[in-house]
Amino acid sequence: MNNKIEHGELFSDLMIKEIKDKFYHVDIDPISNKRRLFFDNSGGAFRLKAASHSFKKLDDLPDCPEHNNGTAKWLMDKQKEGYKSIETILNSHSGSIVTSLTASMVMFDMVRAVMENIPGGNVVTTMLEHPSAYDAMVSYAQKTGKELRVAKTNPLTGGVDVDEIVKLIDQDTCLLTFMYASNISGALLDAEQIVAQARKIKPSLYIVADAVQHAPHGIIDVSKVPVDGINFAPYKFFGPRGFGVGYVSERLSKVSHDKLIAKPYDYWQLGSPAPGHFAAITEVFNYVCWIGKQYISSTDNRTVFVEGMNRIKLHERALMHAMLEGTSNVQGIRHMEGVHAYLDCKDLTQKDFIMAIGFDNLDDKQAVEMYEAAGVITFERLLSSPYSSRMLESFGLKGSVRVSPIHCHSIEDIEAFLKITKKLCSKYPDLKPD
User: Are 268 and 253 in contact (CB under 8 A)?
Assistant: First the structure.
């Protein structure tokens, strides 16, 4: 299928109804029991019911999956199935899977292993990175005495240009880290070209990518983009919290790292993983495949999964286009007076569905509060936040309202958001329900 359709392609009304029914709390706040639009899926994400059910079912069992009784063996089978699901999601055919409490911990582990063991006088990252990658690079560069080089962002696209990264790499560079997509602008970095161009300069360069924000929106393929390490957060990909997942290439898997002495040299888990987490990931994988099977017939799991992710991306792109350009029922953000789409990438194929907006008559914190009063959950990105200041300053922004819907939403949800946004643009916004 053509996943480059400029303005995307919506799911059918029936499909959206089925999708919403597979998740918890899509339209209703479970605490207030009121209707709401949860447009903060970059900070959290909706929970897939099947993933939550599987996690609880397995987590309730007292058995140890590494023992030999029947239920323990069943748990181990579920764990192995989860590993296979992760490998298929990433399209990895060698190397090792890394797990921890969070994706940030996985990132620190990977960065540390390279920094402490691979020769080289400098390391390269970007100004756009999440603190889990940026802070890891800063910390271990200081500890190992390596020079930290930081690529500038592009304030027009909201991303980082390939050339800005590559020009910092030389024969003395031992590690490059970059993120697949910005958690502020949604801009996609050209991962394939970054890796290809960097390795032209130094073929042996170690490269680690942060896919936490991108994982629920698009394809990850470590066979096509051969990084040495990558991480994602299952809780942002419809699964439970308390679990971080990564992959390390065959050569990185053999680099010295913390491990139990009795385990193989390329094993990166410490202690006993919880089988429930792996069962939940399998349910997320099965869900994406369910979407894929609505469109194609194939016996290859990776092919069906890729189709499902592409359909998610197309639906989100169509919603994003509607949010920017409007529909027959309401103006889009690009055409409203008093509100601005920052870092507005005209080519929506180069962007995940994360929007940064701002108002003429409201500061960002006020806007977020007023959105919530109107039943919309967004998030403010402020210079005062250590999680935002570095990126915002690089873009020349004082702040923004981050709006991050997801494929569970409908065109009607976007229209409702736009009508509320229109009210916020006025000098005296009336936020009474229509």
Answer: yes
Q: Calculate mean pLDDT across residues 388-416.
A: 95
* Residue 3 in this model has a pLDDT that exceeds 70: no
Distance CA 298, CA 68 (A): 36
What stretch of H or E contains 206?
strand 206-210
Q: Does the domain spanning 13-48+301-425 belong to CATH 3.90.1150.10? A: yes
Place of tokens 């919506």: 10
CA–CA gap between residue 11 and residue 74 (Å, rounded): 37
Q: C-alpha angle 171/176/177, rounded to 5°?
A: 175
pLDDT at 208 over 70: yes
Average pLDDT score over residue span 298-320 = 97
Asked if 161 contacts 417 with a C-beta cutoff of 8 angstroms, the reply is no
Residue 429 has what pLDDT?
62
Q: Specify the pTM.
A: 0.94
Q: What share of the chain is helix, strand, coil (3-state, %, to 5)?
A: 40, 15, 45
Domain at 53-285: CATH code: 3.40.640.10
| CB atoms closer than 10 angstroms to residue 260 | 10
Residue ranges of the chain assigned to CATH 3.90.1150.10: 13-48+301-425
Running DSSP on this structure, what letter comes out for residue 176?
A: E
DSSP for 254-291, please give it: TS-----TTS-TT----S---HHHHHHHHHHHHHHHHH
